[in-house]
Specification:
Order of helices and strands of chain B: EEEEEEEEEEE
Oligomer: heterodimer
Distance between the termini of chain B: 38 Å
CATH class of chain B: Mainly Beta
CATH topology of chain A: Immunoglobulin-like
Strand content of chain B: over 45%
CATH topology of chain B: Immunoglobulin-like
Strand content of chain A: over 45%
CATH class of chain A: Mainly Beta
Order of helices and strands of chain A: EEEEEEEEEEE
Helix content of chain B: under 10%
Low-confidence stretches of chain B: none
Helix content of chain A: under 10%
Number of strands of chain B: 11
Number of strands of chain A: 11
Mean pLDDT of chain A: 94
Shape of chain B: globular
Number of domains of chain B: 1
Largest sheet of chain A: 7 strands, mixed
Largest interface: A-B, 27 and 25 residues
Chain lengths: 113, 113
């Protein structure tokens, strides 16, 4: 099993550019999440989804958008990138079958210059 | 508003020592308290978790102590090894849709040989 796969691993964006961070899981988990991790800080929830077609905002959603057209995929869209979005982004998934333990991807390190 | 406070931010111990990481929460609706371990360049991985109906849980060298009345829980790493050097995050969630985790700020643990 691949688990949770994130692409790309690294990206440098210029201010005002847009990009999509990809996230795919092959565990048939209902729940998926996007977190950002700033240096020396914990993880902050950006968006989450409880199933295909259903998404909701987390703690820090401004500047981001998501979609969940399938159980497997949960892309995160950054529109008009700003330096404040420089961070490491983690996608995760979980389900009641796993007692809600999260499986995280390996992260995308994004720098906005 | 930070709902899970973690301390200390960093910790250095000698091999065989017992690093102790503490977390305090505010939301009395929280009913699931996991700990995650993160190595540099990797996503967090579930280490151990506890629910408030027990006061202690052990898995190998890792122990969670839980004090419901004080709204505190802690992680002890027994007989610590250099391979335990990592960042540790506590987290908490309530039984709501999506099982969203709120993370503490993280503790960087260094175990010296």
């Amino acid at each position: 099993n691949a688990g949770v796969t994130q692409t790309p691993k690294f990206r440098i964006l210029k201010i005002g550019q847009s990009m999509t961070l990809q996230c795919t899981q092959d565990m048939n988990h209902n729940y998926m999440y996007w977190y950002r991790q700033d240096p020396g800080m914990g993880l902050k929830l950006i968006y989450y989804s409880v199933g295909a077609g259903i998404t909701d905002k987390g703690e820090v959603p401004n500047g981001y958008n998501v979609s969940r057209s399938t159980t497997e995929d949960f892309p995160l869209r950054l529109e008009l990138a700003a330096p404040s979005q420089t961070s490491v982004y983690f996608c995760a998934s979980s389900s009641p079958d796993t007692a809600y333990g999260y499986t995280f991807g390996s992260g995308t390190r994004l720098t906005v210059v | 508003q930070q709902q899970v406070k973690q301390s200390p931010q960093s910790l250095i111990v000698q091999k065989g020592g017992i690093p102790i990481i503490n977390c305090a929460y505010e939301n009395t609706a929280f009913d699931y308290f996991p700990w995650y371990q993160q190595f540099p360049g990797k996503g967090p991985a579930l280490l151990i978790a506890i629910r408030p109906d027990v006061s202690e849980k052990k898995e190998g060298r890792f122990t969670i102590s839980f004090n419901k009345s004080a709204k505190q829980f802690s992680l002890h790493i027994m007989d610590s090894q250099p391979g335990d050097s990592a960042t540790y995050f506590c987290a908490a969630s309530s039984n709501t849709a999506g099982n969203k985790l709120t993370f503490g700020g993280g503790t960087r643990v260094l175990v010296k040989p």
